[in-house]
Every structure is written in C-alpha cells, then in structure tokens.
C-alpha cells in the first residue's frame, strides 16, 4: 500500500457551525494501480486527493491520518511537504493555464523542479526538461521549452504539466480532473499518455474526475464519493459491471447518453447535490434515491462488504448484469 | 422555409500590431426549420461560439446574410431586432455567469417582459410561477439571488427566462457543458420535453457529441471555421464520412467500448486548429491520415453525397472513407478494434 | 468544470484586525467634529485672546494655544468641516462627473470613446500645482478655487477607472445574455454594468478622501487655499511655521489630525476592497 487514508475529515469553520466537506473516509491505494476517485461537485473528491499531497486549502481543518509510504503525511511541516511533493508525489491539475507560471517559459519551470529537489545541476536541468517534454510526445520540444504557457495549445500545456509533474521521477501521480477542460480528441490523447507514462515509470496514479468515461478507460479500482462520503469502493471491472450503490448506477446511466435511443427521455436522477450547509440526515443520497426506505433517512449506512466490493448503502442493488446493453435500455 | 438561416456567413477578426487576421468563421451556411433541432459540433478553435453569436446577432458577420423567417436581418440594429428577439432566444454555457448575480430570480424572469414592453400587470407573478413550473422549479423563493442556487437550478432558471416570451427558436451555446453529469441528463430531458410540448426549434452548439447525437435531428460538424460534414444524425453517427468526424467519434466511444481496453482510436497528430493560421487546401489536411496531394492544395467544397441530405467537404469522401466510417461507428459502440 | 453555487456560506475569513475599529472610531470623531463642532469645542475658534498666546497643552487647552491665544483644539474641531468637508466635496464631485463620463465613453465605444479618452489624457497630463496657481490667480485665493482646481485634476482618474470597468463588463456573459434578450443599451448600463462598477468606485472614493485632504491642506499650506482666520488644518500648519521651535503643539496636533484622517480613510478603503467578492 502506497497510500493509506484513515478517518480523513476535512471541513471549514462557518460562523455558527463547522461545515464538513469530507466526512471520515478511509481507503487504501495499492502500489502500481490506477485509483480513480469519482464524484460530482461537492463530493469532496478534490479535497481528498489534494490532501494526500498536503494541498488542502489553508482555511480548512483536517483530521485523521494519511500514510504515504508508511509515513504520516497529514499536517506535516511545510518544508517536509514541499520535499515530498515533486520528488515523490507529482501533481497535475485541471487548468494548466492557471497552474503554470505565466511569466516563465515552460522549460524553465520544469528545470526549476529538478534543481529545487537537487536532482540536476542548473546546466543539465534544462536538457532534462527538454527530454521530459519529448517523453510526453510534444513535437519540437526545444521550441516548446522556450515558449510561454499562453503561447502553446491547451493539449500541449497539459502535456507540459505532466512532464513537470514527472520530472523528478515521483512514485505517485495525483491528477485532479486532468482532462475535464480539454477537447474530446485531446482528452483521448492525454488519457493514453497517462497510461503510457504510468507503465514506463511504474507509477501509482490517483485520478480525480466526474467523468465515468475516464473511469471506464483507465481505472483499476474506483472510489465513488457523494457529498463527502464514500458510496462505493472496489475494482473498476466489478463496479462498472454491477454497480451496487444507487448513486453509482445513476452516474453510469448519465454516462450512457449515446447508448440511449435518440430523443428518448434519459434516466436522470431527480434533485441536485446538497450544499454543505444543508446536508440530508442519514444517508446523504436518500432524497434522490429511487430505492430509499425509512431507515435511509434516520441512520447513516456504514460501509460494508457486498459481494466483491464495499458499499455504504442499506439497500444496494443486487447484481444482475447491469452492463450497458447495446439496445440502450438504461440501468434501473 | 427555414426559421433561421445563415447564408455563407463569415467573420474575420483583425488582430493588433500586424498579426494575421483571425478567420473565425469562413463561409458557413446553416438552416434551422420549424420544430427542428440542429446540432453544431466542434472543438475549440472551430468557430462555433462565434457562429452562435452571429446567429443571435450579438456580433455582425463580416460577410454573408442572416435571415429570420425569410426576413433579412443582417443589417438590423438594436431597435429593429427587438421583434425578432422576441422569437429568437438564447441559453448559454455557464448559468451562473449568464445571470446577473445582483438581481433576484423574480427580476431576472421579469426582464424580458420589460425589455419588450409586455405589460402583464397583476398577471406577472402568475406568469413567472408558470415559467418556473415548466422547468420544474415551482416552489423556489423568487426573492433569492442566483448565488444561492446550484448550477442545474440556474440553468433551469435561464431556460425559464428564455421561454418567457414564447420564442420559436432557442440558440443554446453549450447548455450542459458546465454541469455535473447527473444534472446534464436532467437538462437534456428538460430541453426535449419543452420541444415536445411547444414545438420550439433548437440550434444547439456543443463539443459533446453524445448530447448532440441524442437531441439533434441534423448534425453539422465544424472545423476551423467551416462545416466539413452535415446530415441527419443517424447517418453521421452511424457512418461518418469525413476523417475529422471519424476521429471525433472515435475519441468519444460508448462506455461499453471504453471498458474493452486495448481498442484503438484514431489519433490526430499535428497542431490543433488555429484560426489565425489556416492551412491551404483542405483545412484538415495537416492532421489527416488519409491526406493526398489534392487535399493540400485545393479546398474541398461542401457537396451532397448520396441522398438523404448528407453533405461532406472532402476530396476522398465517400468512396475512400465510407468503409472506415462504418468501422469507426462499430468500434465506438462495441469497442472491437 | 462543474458549476456549483451551493458552496458553504460565510466561511470564516481572516480575523478582524485592530486597525479597522480604530479607523472607524476616527471616522466617528470626524463626523462629530464636522456636524456639531459647537458641542465639542470648548472655546471660540476665532476670538483672539492675546493674554493666552502660545500656551503649551494643559487641561484648559488640550492642544495648547496659537499666536492669537486661540485654543488649538477648538480650531482643529471647527477646521474639520473646512479641510475634510472640502476634500469630500472634491472627491464626490469628481467621482460623479468622472463616473458618468467614463460610463458613457465605455458604452459608446469606437471613435467617440477614443476622443473622450484623449481628453482625459489631456487632463491627466496637467500638473496639479500649476493649475491650482492659475486658478487661484484668476479666481482669487480661497477654498473655492482649491476645490475647483483639485476637482479638475481628480475626475479623470474616475473616468478612466469606470471606462475600463465598463469595457470589461461589457464582455461578461450576463451582459451578453441581456443583449440577446433584447434589453436596451441604456438599461444594460444601468442594471447590468453600473452596479458592478460601483463597488470599485466606492473603494476609490474612500481612499481618495484621504489623498484629497492632504492635497487641500497642502495647497492651504502654500497659501493658495483658505484665508485667515478660517481654522483650516493646512492653514494652521502654515501659521505655525514661525513658532516651530518654541510652540511644538501648534504644528504637531493639526498635523497629526491630517495624518490620522488620511490613514483612517486608507484603512477603511482597504477594508472595503477586501470585502469585494472575488
């Protein structure tokens, strides 16, 4: 296990009470796997992923334990976190334009990562930077290294960010919605690039997304989050074939628009995602759940084993094959 | 006769200090008929947003004509556009940004009536409630501000606003792109239901081929300022003829297809489209795996192919691309290589 | 990126510092000085009392007396409405004109906008002191001519600020949506643009009051502004010059008053600025 999260809680201090965005979640990430945290807005997925690298917002309070390579990574001093980031944990974000420094050429930023972690002398660092850019299949890497972030296209910026994240040869890559802002043809390329570098560099990847398509394509194991809690966790194959939690099933049908006959009403769940100050009692999904019963309103379902996965639900869906059929009938 | 017609519309933006002009739209013709949904699909740099704004007369085309119900509105200014705008409404991508954050929901929904001097008097309140009812928000507190609602609710409010004057056609610029997946499905259903009940036409612009494929009667695919393929939805999805359409479909397979790891998608090489630097000949040729000499020199016109209203702008279509198209469509569904 | 406006409301921001309450106290004092000086000042600010000249601070005269035996504290209290009052008037008049001008220019766009901004540039280039001297020479010295010349110097700043904001806001999605609805340009300006500009303008107005105060007092100090016996703060400092060495209180207290007011205006302006959304 390269990452071990126990009872992670992240919240914000409001005026009269605290708002809890991530509510006591626990999970492990095995070395070498692609672990995808999937959820929509307000699920707490980004907070969770970022906190593994110590990058939760400063105003948030965090409790619990995050073990990275068996060392506690939560609430460590800044200097230690900075050392871990870059050298052992690489990060890529949704918006490369926002997270790359606009006044430095791309190559310099990569080189800086290397020199900052003492992995290369300044003279050699730039060469290594160009090598990294080539590694992520950027054409004409020397030219791109000398260019500024706004001078290159969105897809290339994302590749450059991946190069920067991997420059110091980390063992874990955390990617927060890396393909969300990209065109669909570029999305495809980036996912393939991630799969490739993961293989070549023997990385563990934690990827955060709301896109079920991404999950289908690269996930080994999935963690489904809803309103700060874990809904379901298990192997991707298993969950995609037989989603047990009603929310997981709903996410899957949302992603199956192209498998529904044209103009036919889609299987959409009612209601919206609850805000942090208006969280439902008991199971947080119950107001929107077609399977909700009385016990769902009063008690919080504990996570338990259910077949080959773990699910937090009193009335999970029993596995019949719920695979997206070619005729397009949505899952129930 | 088409309700909304763009006739060979072009838009050129000048850039500062000697940089080359940006040809955002370079000769696009499009018709939206009564009760019809036209889906315009394309990626960034293709000019679809600019085209949407031309269709809404938010910007004027550099050349070409815009017609509404037969009337040439190309040169219409603010005041003359007013009666047209009553019948031609819009929804935008980011619902929070497209609503004035300082206006209450009531004021937002009232604004179209004020702008068009429709005096409802005491009926206004009831009408606002009715509109909110159409979009499933009958019980919201209309004194609240946009910041107090979720993205899905805001998009519904934006739709309610667009419906106020009972338009005949709505131009929707990426109506679901900024929403969570589970909410996208709700909004798609809402748009479909509104069309069923009221016979409204839609011009939907999106990069999301799944959504377009689900709601559109006809699809037009845009690349670098021009339409490169157009036709009935089933035909485009089932047998894309243009190499770019094929690449687009190949990049957005069904969930089932994605699960079968190891299937191959068409990879586009080369630089992404830059409207300030348009290649000669076929605009897609630098990234096309099938490009031949003619493609590099002569721009292929958009021409009818077969029957059924299909049009393609490619020298090699249909003969050299149709088999590939069928294969792509099949792989997209099932994931077999 | 998904839109979710249902985010936690009112997260605790940075702890409120000690400066803002102090600044607000100063503000309250100034308001009192301006509105009811008679109730606060213990002595007549103008009447001479030669027997009491240049007395140091005491219980009877907290700020000491000047060369005419007048209580400096009372003069400072009464002076507020001249110094601060004129500063506020200048800022408000400049802001009013500048905002209207800038809004019109921004909305008009094209050649008219260009022309209007060139005029602004002209005013910007003008040295304040030269203008003040010129106006003083033609109108005569006094707070009136100071007010006029400073207003002429001040309004272009607002024009430029507002015009920039209007240009920026015109491209915003909610303005685009309003245009698509058919809302007229005038209503768009009034309802969809101005409310968002007002916040910026308010911040600037607040900090500008401090600057304007310093400018007014400076011009009075130079002899261009208020005339004796008006207890305007800059004039007090000017009059205190011959007594710098011997009667320190005559310089220090009016000077401190100016400094405190300017600082308070800056702090309040900062507080307003940091409360802006996003």
Characterize the structure shown:
The complex is a heterotrimer of chains A (332), B (337) and C (278). Chain A has 332 residues and is α/β, with parallel strands linked by helices. Chain A has one domain: Rossmann fold, CATH 3.40.50.300. Chain A contains twelve helices and twelve strands. Chain A has an eight-stranded mixed beta sheet with strand order 6-7-8-3-9-10-12-11, sandwiched between helices. In chain A, helix 4 packs parallel to helix 7 and helix 5 packs across helix 7. The longest helix of chain A has 18 residues. Chain B has 337 residues and is α/β, with parallel strands linked by helices. Chain B contains 13 helices and twelve strands. In chain B, the strands form two sheets. Chain B has an eight-stranded mixed beta sheet with strand order 6-7-8-3-9-10-12-11, sandwiched between helices. Chain B has a four-stranded antiparallel beta sheet with strand order 2-1-4-5, with helices on one face. The radius of gyration of chain B is 21 Å and the shape is globular. Chain C has ten helices and no strands. With 278 residues, chain C is mainly alpha-helical. The two termini of chain C are 18 Å apart. Chain C has a single domain, classed as MetI-like (MetI-like fold), CATH 1.10.3720.10. Chains in contact: A-B, A-C, B-C. Chains B and C meet through helix 2, helix 3, helix 4 and helix 6 of B and helix 7 and helix 8 of C.
Short structural description:
The complex is a heterotrimer of chains A (332), B (337) and C (278). Chain A is an alpha/beta fold and 332 residues long.
Terminal residue distance of chain A: 35 Å
How is the main sheet of chain C built?
none
Count of strand segments of chain A = 12
Helix/sheet category of chain C: mainly alpha
Total number of helices of chain A: 12
The value of Rg of chain C in angstroms is: 23 Å
Question: What's the CATH topology label of chain A?
Answer: Rossmann fold
Within the largest sheet of chain A, what's the order of strands? 6-7-8-3-9-10-12-11
Residue windows where pLDDT falls under 50 for at least 5 positions of chain C: 1-15
